[in-house]
């Protein structure tokens, strides 16, 4: 069994400090009083139970800076933490530029479909960060839903059925692509979330299969799907 005891290395401490500065003033969507940095910290903690690779853990701490922080770019990340960390973060970043104003709600579906298609080219390190990110998002979703109920979804850019569909597709992909026990945890947390949030008679596949999955296939192949 791998030694997964995370050490507080110089690089990890630097990533903690940098993430804290870059996400200063940001809050979680489901809880406007909770500083956003709680999420990268949690992602890094989850990763630390599966690896002691400081680049992967640093990538977890910094995984949202390219898509959510204005004025901090890939080249800055590579200069500060090295090309490997920058590539890990790039692999889990959505196709959006925080320096350009956009309607996140209107572009949600397109962005997520591109994200799903992009997973095919991601490294194992990026996929591990993706899993840890989704594990914590799902756990947070359960906690916030228990507290706020249906009112929670007003804070997000998509309804819960679409969100669950997205996580289900990510889980399906990870089960075929990533040979790591973190996938087992993702599967367990997804099952808990589906049970807590979703009407058991409503299947995300049934709702979105005809539209979103065809669009996803079209993105992957570059051809329209009938």
**End-to-end distance:** 48 Å
- The CATH class assignment is Mainly Alpha
Proportion of residues in helical segments: 55-70%
Query: Could you state the CATH homologous superfamily?
Result: Hypothetical protein af1432
Q: Report the CATH topology name.
A: Hypothetical protein af1432
Query: Rg from C-alpha positions?
Result: 17 Å
* Whole-number total of structural domains: 1
Helix/strand class: mainly alpha
Number of strands: 2
Mean pLDDT across every amino acid position: 84
Strand coverage percent: under 5%
Shape: globular
Please identify, by name, the CATH architecture: Orthogonal Bundle
Largest sheet: 2 strands, antiparallel
Order of helices and strands: HEEHHHHHHHHHH
What does this structure look like?
It is a single chain. The protein has a single domain (10-221), classed as Orthogonal Bundle (Hypothetical protein af1432), CATH 1.10.3210.10. Helix content is 62%, strand content 3%. It contains eleven helices and two strands. The protein has a two-stranded antiparallel ribbon. Helix 2 runs antiparallel to helix 3 (54-61), helix 3 (54-61) packs across helix 8 and helix 5 (74-81) crosses helix 6 (83-91). The longest helix has 25 residues, at 124-148. It is globular, with a radius of gyration of 17 Å.
């Amino acid at each position: 069994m791998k030694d997964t005891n995370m050490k507080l290395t110089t690089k990890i401490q630097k990533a903690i400090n940098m993430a804290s500065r870059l996400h200063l003033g940001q809050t979680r969507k489901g809880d406007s009083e909770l500083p956003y940095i709680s999420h990268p910290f949690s992602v890094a903690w989850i990763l630390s139970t599966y690896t002691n690779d400081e680049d992967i853990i640093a990538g977890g701490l910094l995984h949202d800076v390219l898509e959510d922080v204005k004025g901090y770019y890939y080249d800055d990340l590579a200069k500060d933490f090295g090309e490997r960390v920058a590539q890990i973060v790039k692999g889990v970043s959505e196709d959006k530029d925080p320096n350009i104003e956009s309607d996140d709600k209107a572009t949600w579906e397109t962005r997520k479909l591109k994200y799903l298609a992009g997973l095919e080219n991601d490294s194992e390190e990026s996929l591990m960060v993706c899993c840890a990110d989704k594990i914590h998002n799902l756990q947070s979703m359960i906690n916030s839903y228990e507290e706020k109920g249906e009112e929670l979804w007003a804070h997000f850019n998509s309804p819960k059925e679409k969100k669950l569909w997205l996580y289900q597709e990510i889980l399906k992909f990870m089960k075929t692509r990533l040979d790591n026990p973190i996938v087992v945890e993702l599967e367990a947390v997804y099952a808990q979330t589906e049970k807590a949030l979703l009407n058991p008679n409503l299947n995300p596949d049934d709702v979105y299969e005809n539209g979103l999955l065809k669009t996803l296939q079209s993105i992957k192949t570059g051809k329209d799907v009938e």
